[in-house]
Amino acid sequence: AVMELVNALYTVDLDAADDELKKVVLFSLENTLLLLSPIIPHFCEELFKRLGKTGSIVEHAWPEYRKDSLKTDEVLVVVQINGKLRSKFTIMAESDEALIRETALADEKIKKNLGDKEPKKVIIIRKKQTLVNIVV
Known about the structure:
The chain has helices at 2-10, 19-36, 41-50, 97-106, 108-114; strands at 74-81, 84-92, 121-126, 130-135. By secondary structure, the chain is of the alpha+beta class. It has a 4-stranded mixed beta sheet, with helices on one face. A hairpin with a 2-residue loop joins strand 1 and strand 2. Helix 1 runs antiparallel to helix 2 and helix 2 packs antiparallel against helix 3 (41-50). The longest helix has 18 residues, at 19-36. It starts with a helix and ends with a strand. 10% of the residues are buried. The model has no long low-confidence stretch (mean pLDDT 91).
C-alpha cells in the first residue's frame, strides 16, 4: 500500500499543481513518513526535516483514520465452477443475490467455461468478499 501511494505521488507534476494539490501531496508525504518512522527512523527523520518540519518526527502524533473511509461501495465477487476459480468481478455492495447470480452467469469467462452445460446449483456465500460457486 505504501508503494502504491509513493507511485501515485510520483505522477504529480508539482510545478503545474495548484495549491490544493500541493497540500494533499504534503499531507500524504508527512503521514507516510510518520507511518514508516518506526521501521526506518533515521531516513524518515531526515526527510521530515527537509519538508520543513520542526522537532523530531517521534514527537509528532500518529496519523488517525476515519472509520467511514474504510467502507466501500463495491465488493469483489469470486466465481468458481466446481470449486475452481474461473472469474472475478466487482459489484455494488448492496446488490441482492439474484443480481449477483445473473451477473456471474452473464460473465464471458463463465459462459465460455460452462459451454452448453446447464448449472445444477449456484451457491452464493457473502462475507468480506462474495463467492459464487457454480456446480455443473
